[in-house]
Write a structure and sequence with these properties.
Elements lengths: L6 H4 L23 E3 L2 E3 L30 H11 L12 E10 L18 E10 L14 E9 L2 E8 L12 H8 L15 H8 L5 H8 L13 E2 L4 E4 L5 E10 L8 H10 L3 H11 L5 E9 L1 H6 L19 E10 L4 H6 L12 E3 L3 H18 L78 H9 L2 H16 L4 H14 L1 H11 L37 E5 L6 H13 L3 E6 L5 E2 L5 E2 L3 E2 L10 E4 L3 H7 L3 H12 L4 E3 L1 H9 L8 E3 L3 H8 L7 H4 L4
Parallel strand pairs: 13-14, 13-18, 14-17, 18-19, 19-20
Antiparallel strand pairs: 1-2, 3-4, 3-11, 4-5, 5-6, 7-9, 8-9, 8-12, 9-10, 10-11, 15-16
Helix pairs in contact: 3-4, 4-13, 5-11, 12-14, 13-14, 16-18
The structure holds CIS-heme D hydroxychlorin gamma-spirolactone 17R, 18S.
Amino acid sequence: MRKIMTTNNSRKRKQGKGSAPDVESQRVAGGELHQIAGGKHPALTTNQGVALSDNQNSLRINSRGPTLLEDFILREKITHFDHERIPERIVHARATGAHGFFELTASLKQYTTARVLTEVGEKTPVFTRISTVAGGAGSVDTPRDVRGFAVKFYTKEGNWDLVGNNIPVFFIQDAIKFPDLIHAVKMEPDRGFPQSATAHDTFWDFISLTPESMHMVMWIMSDRTLPRSLRMIEGFGVHSFRLINSAGESTFVKFHWRPKLGLQSTIWDETVKICGADQDFHRRDMFDAIAAGNFPEWEFAVQLFTQKEADEFPFDHLDATKLIPEELVPLRVIGRMVLNRWPNNFFAETEQVAYCPSHVVPGIDFSNDPLLQGRLFSYLDTQLSRLGSPNFHQIPVNAPKCPFANHQRDGHMQMAQPVGRVAYEPNSLSKNSPRETPAAGFHSAAITETGLKDRIRAEAFADHYSQARQFYLSQTAYEQAHIASALVFELSKVEHLYIRETMVGHLRHIENDLAKRVAAGLGFDNMPDAPVAAAPVKKMAPSPALQIIGKMKDTLKGRAIGILIADGSDGAVIKKIKKAATDAGASVKIVAPKVGGAKLADGSMLAADGQLAGTPSVLFDAVAVILSDAGAKALSMEGAAIDFVRDAFGHLKAIAVDQGGQALLKKANVEQDAGVVDTNNKDGFIAAAKTRQWDREKSVRTLA
Ligand code: HDE
């Protein structure tokens, strides 16, 4: 019977830019390479290495008859496809990951034996994964959410995983509450929404009944949860850990990552619109930055303190709802991390990477923080169910880069082929089987522990409001207004009035003015009662290090500027603004009504990087609007152009305008202020673009 080809493989196509290669000529026999479209293509085979003669048709009787079960090629392909997804992480499912290195710049030899923290100049490979918490793997990049900040250091002494967040405290004090917290924040089980949002009843119900979460609530209602870029967030190990030196002495340590580009966040209205414009905003930003050689970089710093010093703190450092203010224990910068390589394959690396806080190396140990203690169990367990095998450490992204050997054997997907008779220890039959290393091997800190066995919470954990108050009072007035407004926004989505009231009651302990602003924003006539506080609220000195605005850097490095043009725009002005922005370190994109570009005043064509409707100003840190009079007239009929300038103004961004640009602003009812700069004053524009026009905010929206 004559073999019937599909239209695809029977049709001859002309080769050319954008046209598909001739499919017939892809057919190959054996393992031989075949020349096509200028490249060498290896044979397409089954997973058993058998070359396929036809990847377009399944095996059937008659061209229109039944498909045969015998078709092992079809079945292998479909079966593999059916199993492509693995269970996604129950939390932190959505993420961006990258390879890089950690370089030690100052030794901690006095405190630890860990070579990664003592060998100055040593570059340790890392794989870093930055995630949101609540949404599924396919959710968006920009919900109001904590960001996970997990770093796997492939040290010479084994893998060390520092699995932290971009916020230095956590919601709860005891691991036994974690499933409750996560069930409350995730989509509500009866309705399956909201995906990745805290603004709903079950979250605030749980929070309002969990006073220990109040400090974290202040952080998540701040713009920390709305980062401008993952390259502009801090990272924290959160818990206290221990370092152990060669004399066996231990010192407590908190770990910090500080972004080289400084901190920057977006504002809520901007975040919401970014989400519509680009659901992969953060992942794309990181991908683009690494591809352009603008490698994200962080300083690594530690806070070191002794048991004696800890005893003097006005809080308990084992309580993960507390931080140690930098003013109390200063940060010591000891290294830097650079992310310089995007993964080859998202699934193989970013999805399959398995972090466990229990992965530490000799010289690093745990504290008794009850949240950390629970995590030491949870992560290994989750990897077994997610990756499906105790051999997950053999997946390349998880495998140590130093030699590793033991007598563990077999299990699903065993990749290693151990040789010899011996798979136990001690043994006398093998001269070269792995043995213990008493001196240099891992030792836990030798600590005496005695006391009552019971389900008890330390008295020292009872103060839930003092640091929440300290955080709020440490913010600038703009940031305080954003926190109050975020609370109003979130609680306005809560259907149960008593939950809103209970929350405002808690706020009264944090700061009465905050409670009043939120109560007014929610339309309360009377102030709800404050719940009984388990411990008196202490006065703590404000810590400016807790601000975002205070840590924003005066730079355009890592930032983006959009230039809106249309037919008739002045090429010389565009060139001047583009050069000034690029010289200052920004990346620049030309936005025009058509992606093919615009015909400039001198008749030349300038290609666009983005089409206006798909490239709104929320994707930029500042914008320039360079238009001819006719261009301005045409764009004033264009909703996307009006939104472009209105949003740039509303999101407190600098705007450079020529005469045509001014005309568009007028049409959009955008006022003039210090952040709206003439294109003749390029230096003024660059200076304004490095920051946000905070004073403008009161004229563009009502904040709580
Ligand atoms: Fe996690 N957490 N967590 N967590 N967590 C997971 O492990 C858990 C906590 C954090 O990019 C899971 O591999 C418990 C604090 C990050 O792969 C799971 C408790 C902090 C990531 C888990 C906590 C974190 C996770 C889900 C309370 C900041 C993503 C998938 C005792 C210091 C790591 C996985 C990555 C992931 C459990 C609390 C950070 C289920 C039980 C506190 C950054 O094992």
